[in-house]
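User: My instructor asked us to take a sequence, write out its structure as tokens, and then describe one feature of it. I'm not sure where to start. Here is the sequence I was given:
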Amino acid sequence: MKTNCNFRAVTQPFASILIIASATLSNASLASDSLELDPIVVEADPEVVTEDSDSYTAERATVGFKQPIDTSRIPQTINVITRQRLDDANANSIEEAAYLVPNLSEATGNGFSGSLYSRGHEVFTYNVDGAPRPFLSLYGTAPDLSFFDRVEILSGPSGVFQGTGEPVGTINFVRKRAKAEFDAEASITAGSFSTQRVEGDITGGNESGSIRGRLIAYDESQDASYDYGEQDRDGVSGTVEFDVGDAGTISVGTIVENRDTTAHSGLPTFIDGELLDVDPETYIGAPWNSNEGDTQESYVEYEHEFDNGGVLKIAGRVYDRDTDIKSALATTGVDPVTGEFSMITFARNFEETTDYLDVNFTAPFLF
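Assistant: Let's start with the prediction itself. The structure tokens for your sequence are:
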């Protein structure tokens, strides 16, 4: 039997791709038949907000610039993980979302969080609505993704676009905005390792829509693949938006999260590098191992749109982090004769406050 397959791709407006596939089977003793498949259409939402778009793609992003811009105008690789993609993948953390794009990889740390790498280098910062934040897995990583509309990833140096950044790229989390129409959602999920998660999201505004608010909260608990390992997380995000005249908007809000983790750094090996022949659930640590972290971010923004298309935006943010770590972990290989190895205790209290103020103006420039 001989098979001939022909494919034809037709480009449509708004990054639509119509793929028509046909297959023809022929045999000396079989009459020729033709099989027509239903068209497959992949469309990108032209709006910058991805929530409720049911789309896996986005034509516009804010990473690298202060205002939304077509990704085709940014001379570097841009990946946008939309709200629909995050929901379908059940990705609630940046570590889980990293598996959805080709230019990010994760080095798993304690089983709950890890370090991200891009182009062979570790990513040490991330952005929330363009405001930079430190990204250190030891102290807990980025906020829960339930608070955000999308995750934007720019590969390569970004300082030339936004004044600050790393040579490997920028990860920008864009928060969900309050809606004028009332909407409420709640979900309860369960998974492996006794994972349980509850989410709630409510938004709405006054009759005219000039004042809008949104409240998002989650609570999650899960065990690890090893004995004693567990993590409890919870958080809440609240925002209120006020229209000022016909062209201005003031936004105020906060994101508060708490985390309590019992983890360890993994099993040691024998001094010759051979792996231990023990149960994978074996825990090397102390009963009092813990990693507790509390974060709070408060922000206020004002945005004004001018008749000529220009936009003035003033944004101020204060970010506080308090982390308390106590851990016992192995530091040497295991002697194959005696079965002995060395351990150390590690403790640290880390407090951090970051202030951010940005004033920018963008406007069309005509040649």
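For the description part of your assignment, you could build on this observation: Confidence is low (pLDDT under 50) at residues 1-32, 40-46. Try explaining in your own words what that tells you about the chain.
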